[in-house]
């Protein structure tokens, strides 16, 4: 097995120079760097990452906490962020919390025990005063979910605007009985979407109807259940803002089973612009979220925090959302 001394001998350089190249030291000429890399390749030498981590006090690993791997939004976030991690020579550890406070704390302990260099939170289960002390051990970056009082970077989307443009679209089509779907807990993302929903209703002097609110909306099966619940109402909604494409797909597929026409009897708006929106018939009107931009920015900010060691500093990076109109709200060729 080749050693660092073998690499130095073949490259005709000192062991110190080889070590500097392996550890990406900035003060090494490109010529010497090439000599070392060629020697390592010829000898099949692989640096000992564990030893390198001990010397640099870095693990070169970042943990990404997500609530649900099966949700296509988070699946894409994982893929995009893993690409960003690889480009920076880092590995991404995926930690699924399943909306559990205990699981979230267990994963945050990875930072405390120095098993990762930083943590990216895409959802927040615990109160921020419970999470904040972990900043003693490393950086935390919020991506998607956010907490206004947190003195950490936040890469997020304008969720209030997303809820607003979705609902305004339905109102402009003449709907006044609009249902609203939400998750099982009041995250800041969910609260902002609801605020946007209510803002649009208020602009059109339409009252918020509590009986048109449906909770625990996450999956296709949840969408099926919600459609069945709608059918039991004496006064039925003519449109629904689902807050998620999976829920929207479930509502549409179940509507077909019950003879409910989309969009004539019920207009449906999703959220996320997942692939399923163009696979379901009719295709789903939805809100596009720039997931790749958000993932890359979150990892870029994380790398800056790892280098600077400035963990407590509030920064907000907010991205715009876009309404994509399809056939679940308007028949093809009708909407302008």
List descriptors.
single chain, 336 residues, alpha/beta, 4-stranded parallel beta sheet, 12 helices
Sequence of secondary-structure elements: HHHHEHEHEHEEHEHEHEHEEHEE
Shape: elongated
- The whole-number mean of residue pLDDT values reads 91
User: What share of residues are in beta strands?
Assistant: 5-15%
The secondary-structure class comes to: alpha/beta
Please give the order of strands in the largest beta sheet. Answer: 2-1-3-4-5-11
Put simply, the count of helices is 12
Gyration radius, in Å: 25 Å
- β-strand number: 12
- Can you give the helix content as a percent range? 40-55%
Distance between the termini: 69 Å
Low-confidence spans: pLDDT under 50, at least 5 residues? none
| Main sheet attributes: strand count, strand direction, barrel closure | 6 strands, parallel
Domain HTH lacI-type: 2-56
Organism: Sutcliffiella tianshenii
GO molecular function: DNA binding
Pfam family, one: Peripla_BP_3
Structural account:
The chain is an alpha/beta fold and 336 residues long. It contains 12 helices and 12 strands. The protein has helices at residues 4-11, 15-22, 30-43, 49-56, 72-87, 101-112, 128-131, 159-172, 188-203, 220-231, 245-257, 291-308, and strands at residues 61-66, 91-96, 118-121, 140-143, 153-157, 178-181, 213-214, 239-241, 267-269, 286-288, 315-319, 322-324. The longest helix is centred in the C-terminal third of the chain and has 18 residues, at 291-308. The chain is elongated, with a radius of gyration of 25 Å. The model has no long low-confidence stretch (mean pLDDT 91).
């Amino acid at each position: 097995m080749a050693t660092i001394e073998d690499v130095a001998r073949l490259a005709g350089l000192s062991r110190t120079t080889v070590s500097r190249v392996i550890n990406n030291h900035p003060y090494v000429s490109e010529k010497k760097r090439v000599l070392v890399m060629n020697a390592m390749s010829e000898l099949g030498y692989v640096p000992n990452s564990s030893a390198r981590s001990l010397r640099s006090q870095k693990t070169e690993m970042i943990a990404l906490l997500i609530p649900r791997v099966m949700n296509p939004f988070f699946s894409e976030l994982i893929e995009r962020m893993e690409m960003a991690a690889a480009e920076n020579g880092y590995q991404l550890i995926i930690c699924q919390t399943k909306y559990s406070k205990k699981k979230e704390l267990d994963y945050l302990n990875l930072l405390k025990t120095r098993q990762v260099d930083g943590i990216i939170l895409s959802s927040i289960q615990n109160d921020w005063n419970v999470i904040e002390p972990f900043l003693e051990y490393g950086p935390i970056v919020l991506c998607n979910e956010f907490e206004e009082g947190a003195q950490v970077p936040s890469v997020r989307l304008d969720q209030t605007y997303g809820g607003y443009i979705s609902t305004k679209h339905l109102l402009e089509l003449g709907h006044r009985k609009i249902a609203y779907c939400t998750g099982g807990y009041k995250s800041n993302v969910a609260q902002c979407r609801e605020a946007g929903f209510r803002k649009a209703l208020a602009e059109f002097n339409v009252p918020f109807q509590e009986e048109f609110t449906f909770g625990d909306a996450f999956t296709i099966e949840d969408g099926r259940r919600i459609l069945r619940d709608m059918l039991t109402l004496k006064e039925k909604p003519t449109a629904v803002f689902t807050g998620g494409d999976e829920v929207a797909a479930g509502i549409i597929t179940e509507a077909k089973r019950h003879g409910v026409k989309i969009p004539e009897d019920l207009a449906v708006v999703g959220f996320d612009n997942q692939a399923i929106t163009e696979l379901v018939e009719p295709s789903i009107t939805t809100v596009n979220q720039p997931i790749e931009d958000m993932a890359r920015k979150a990892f870029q900010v994380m790398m800056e925090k790892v280098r600077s060691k400035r963990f407590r500093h509030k920064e907000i990076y907010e991205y715009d959302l876009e309404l994509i109109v399809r056939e679940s709200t308007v028949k093809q060729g009708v909407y302008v």
